[in-house]
Amino acid sequence: MPAPGDGVAVASGSVGAFEFDTDTAVERVGDGRYRAVVTDRWGVVGGAPNGGYLVALAARALAAALERPDPLTITAHFLTPPEPGPAELTVETLRRGGTTSTGALRLVEAGEPRLAVLASFGDLSRDSSVAYDAAPPPDLPPLDACVRADAGPLGDEVTIMQRLDARVHPDTVGWVWGQPGGTPQAGGWLRLADGREPDTAMLPLAVDAWAPTPLELGVLGWVPTIELTVHVRARPAPGWLRCWVRTRLVAGGFVEEDCDVWDARGRLVAMSRQLSRVRGLPG
Amino acid sequence: MPAPGDGVAVASGSVGAFEFDTDTAVERVGDGRYRAVVTDRWGVVGGAPNGGYLVALAARALAAALERPDPLTITAHFLTPPEPGPAELTVETLRRGGTTSTGALRLVEAGEPRLAVLASFGDLSRDSSVAYDAAPPPDLPPLDACVRADAGPLGDEVTIMQRLDARVHPDTVGWVWGQPGGTPQAGGWLRLADGREPDTAMLPLAVDAWAPTPLELGVLGWVPTIELTVHVRARPAPGWLRCWVRTRLVAGGFVEEDCDVWDARGRLVAMSRQLSRVRGLPG
Q: How far apart are CA B193 and CA B196, in angstroms?
């Protein structure tokens, strides 16, 4: 016999007919247990779901289980390559504090663990003070001087570019034309294509919506993410996000990518770092 | 009847009579189960064990359980304030891959969960290539122009300063004399006081061995860490480490601190980011 609340769809943030909300909805099926469908609508090269999309999906289940709206810090380790299809998410609540709560999540598809997550959630509407800010937004070219992300030679499986309106800094797209710029960087303007405004739920997607920076070093191989950590620092204002990804070290077959995200007010709203393996470096 | 291997002390890296190794030793008591003693020899203000010390202790158990020597990326969420005393560590192996293995750890003291950890380990001796390096070491004053960390008005409970030889950049210690410099930064030269050379096991300690950067903004309150992530990028050369901590945003009652660590060759060997709560900001 189902317990009260079973089968009720839950999701934090704004929910409507928007693609992001539909595709990250989770259904509660028990205590700390959720069901979801990993759609094929946020696919990257090869058709695998984007890592940031999966983290955003996991964040929905965590927000519901921890009963806190905003992901303050969320870390995901990618265990096996995820695929589109039904997923089971299990949240273990580790701590319920006065300001933050912490939980561990596992995302399983077809019996295979895909994602392990550790996160602390809170409520970023409680305190809007800014005591120190040395993080000005990047000086991006105007929108019409940037490159539309869907303009490149992407395969049909890169469905994420139908969901996003990304305007990429022209200094970061040399790899598209076979002329990598030599500086491992990425970024530009970003919004959701269907007009849904940004919130803290979609910021884990925003940090991972960019081409891997090693492409600008001439890397041709896959750059599989081992781990992605996102800090969300404020609820974003409506409008375009500005994102910038930089890499300082490619060594030992590993690369870090740091992405910062600013909202339309110029406020730094998220910072992420991911560690990936990198192969196929030019000799 | 004990299984083979039970009761055998295990620890990765160099082990000897050195304080760090003794105080991070873990004893295997079962499959993925370890016992350790959190000593009072790495205490910070108030006598609580330093967070980086606890992460280093957790890393010992993870290295043993995952059978990989080096922490590539390790994330800890601090659940309840740890104390000196006996600890139980449990590791769940989530993935054993060809290059990396991933595990989840819980550290429990007196029945209370203190630390939840998610980490991927590998072997950084397998590939020493450097494909891109835009991370030069900071330009620190010479050792004798820095401030010895044990010179300040620290209480007897800050025992970590007896274990470390830290030479602090003079531009970051205004808070000690009641004249905070206004820039949230920290860092300097670091080595273990008993002459033990750095390795990947001690780098999680090195990133967290510095005063909280909000002290330089005049913060007088506690700065409790919510989460700390450390990326270890190379095995350090013998000799002094150079460490630099910077903060870009103090907002909403939270602060991030990014610490980079270079070895004596000038190679970036670790980068960390932690998110903490911050209270007691000057009005």
A: 8
Collapsing DSSP states into helix, strand and coil, what is residue B14?
A: coil
Condensed to tens digits (0 to 9), the pLDDT of residues A54-66 reads 999 999 999 999 9
Query: Backbone phi, then psi, for B7, in 5-degree steps?
Result: 80, 0
Nearest residue, CB atoms, B132 vs list A119, A249, A277: A249
Report CB contact under 8 Å: A73, B247.
Answer: no
CA atoms within 13 A on the CB side of A22: 11
Write the pLDDT tens digit of every residue in A175-184: 988 999 999 9
| Total Cβ atoms within 10 A of residue A171 | 15
Residues in A closer than 8 angstroms to B221, CB to CB, are none
Three-class DSSP category at A216: helix
Polymer length in residues for chain B: 283
Predicted TM-score (pTM) of the model is 0.94
Residue B178 backbone zone (phi > 0: left; psi -120 to 50: alpha; other: beta): left
* Residue B53 phi, psi dihedral angles, 5° rounding: -60, -45
- Hey, what are B221's tokens? 């309150």
Element (H, E) at A92: strand A85-96
Burial of A56 (0-12, 13-18, 19+ CB in 10 A): buried
Report yes or no: B225 and B78 within 8 Å, Cβ to Cβ: yes
